[in-house]
Design a protein that fits this description.
With 145 residues, the chain is mainly α. Helices cover 43% and strands 9% of the residues. Strands 1-2-3 form a three-stranded parallel sheet, covered by helices on one side. The longest helix has 18 residues.
């Protein structure tokens, strides 16, 4: 149902039956976003760690579909795995908006490590919040407006 809903909105959906198959597809074809079930738990975290370890794949965002109460920002695997979470029951319009946003952020983050200076302040803060990164960001320069 989720794949069909995304297909109706113009996305090409390539299903994978597990983490190994998903990793193979990520390596062999261009993927803009991964939408997966948060119920994979540690399997999702393992997949995400493998993806983050490969420079070419690291910018690919992950959108997790979670059961109500089944995901929390403090959950160990969730901190590594999900760049966005949609709680079930999934409303297709909400999922489409989240996937489009993830695709746009992923496209901008493709050369993230060399482009911090080109990101807007909001995108930079979102990256740190959404990716569960930490650190200090110093904004310098002229304030417009």
């Amino acid at each position: 149902m989720t794949g069909a809903g995304l297909s109706r909105h113009g996305f090409t959906v390539t299903p994978a039956s597990g983490a190994e198959e998903a990793l193979g597809k990520l390596r062999s074809q261009r993927v803009d976003v991964v939408v997966c079930s948060a119920s994979l738990g540690e399997g999702l975290a393992t997949l995400r760690r493998q993806v983050l370890a490969e420079d070419a794949l690291a910018p690919v965002p992950f959108v997790a579909l979670a059961d109500p109460g089944g995901w929390s920002p403090a959950g160990g695997w969730a901190e590594v795995a999900a760049t966005d979470v949609v709680t079930r029951p999934v409303v297709t319009g909400d999922l489409v908006a989240r996937v489009r946003g993830a695709v746009e952020r992923g496209a901008r983050a493709g050369d993230f490590q060399s482009s911090l200076d080109r990101m807007s302040a909001l995108d930079l803060v979102e990256h740190f919040r959404g990716g569960r990164h930490s650190g200090t960001v110093l904004f310098t320069g002229r304030r417009d407006g």
